[in-house]
């Protein structure tokens, strides 16, 4: 299945493909496109993002067993922006997580950028994954992602203390498209 996304005058095309191998794992369940349900998502402390904005996540299986994750944020005018992109195995190890800035550096210079942001995924059970994001070696976000047994709802629960000492307890709810 091919998905097209227009950002400004640039057309970004990515292909999604499934590899149905063996029993279902959280990595296989995640493959597809997920749209955030803002009415069911909660942000503590608030405020939530502006009304009319939301996030879309797309996950694709790599031939090496990795999962490519793309987060697109939609603003109140319906304009998309890249939140982050990564390719990682669900083995608890740290992998590079790119933003628009690191991709611009890499593509503009034709060399790999210094990676200062990483993401690690660790299986808890077939429906649950722990996610740890780091910036310059310091943990900046910890979440638990759960996929419903019917594979229709994905919930990311954040429960951690940020760099300023403030406790974050967000719950982001996504529906499979």
Assess the beta-strand content as a share of residues.
over 45%
Total tally of structural domains: 1
Order of strands in the sheet with the most strands?
3-4-5-6-7-8-9-10-11-14
Fraction of residues in helices? under 10%
Order of helices and strands: EEHEEEEEHEEEEEEE
CATH superfamily placement? Calycin beta-barrel core domain
- At CATH's second level, what is the architecture? Beta Barrel
Shape: globular
CATH fold field value: Lipocalin
Please report the first level of CATH classification, the CATH class. Mainly Beta
Secondary structure category: mainly beta
Provide the gyration radius in Å.
Answer: 16 Å
Q: What is the tally of beta strands? A: 14
Mean pLDDT score: 83
